[in-house]
Amino acid sequence: MLLERREDFFRPFRELQREIDRLFEDFFTPSLRRSADVYRFTPDIDVYETDKELVIEAEIPGMDRKDITVKVEDNVLKISGEKKLEREHKDRNYRVFERSYGKFERCMVLPDYVDAEKIKAKYENGVLTITIPKHEEVKAKVVDVKVE
After folding, report:
1. Higher pLDDT, 120 or 29
2. What Å distances lie between residue 29 and 25, 67, 118, CA to CA?
């Protein structure tokens, strides 16, 4: 009898733990989103800067460059496109289908110190590389100061 009540006491905590585990699993696997039995994807991106420019690299494998759109509107960079499923085999009985496809869009607000008018994009080996030069007056100037 005591064991049964103890089991009931811990039930809400176990359910909470399952929900927290599910939340973290969903959060740390953002590249695949399940919607209406179709896996959609959001490209993973890396953003870094050098002394001269801001660089955004987006992983978009298996796409043709004509299916990718890059534009800047109101200081917001928008990367969008559509990865199409071009093969359909009705004679196959798939057990696992992990390739993602569908429309995607990634947006990011650009910092004020970049010159969006001079943006460049290159797509090579499944990686979209966007470079945005910094304004001249913002580039870091290094001055060596002699300590007395």
Report:
1. 120
2. 6, 24, 34
Q: Please, which residues bridge with residue 114 across strands?
A: 134
Distance, CA of 34 to CA of 122 (rounded, Å): 29
Is-contact 110 75, C-beta < 8 A?
yes
Q: How far apart are CA 43 and CA 57, in angstroms?
A: 10
Q: What is the mean pLDDT of residues 13-31?
A: 70
**Pairwise CA distance, residues 82 & 104, whole Å:** 6
Quick one: which of 109, 123, 115 has its CA closest to 139? 115
Q: Per-residue pLDDT for 87 more than 70?
A: no
Strand partners, 45: 58
Concatenated DSSP letters for 109-144?
Answer: EPPTTB-GGG-EEEEETTEEEEEEEBPGGGS-----
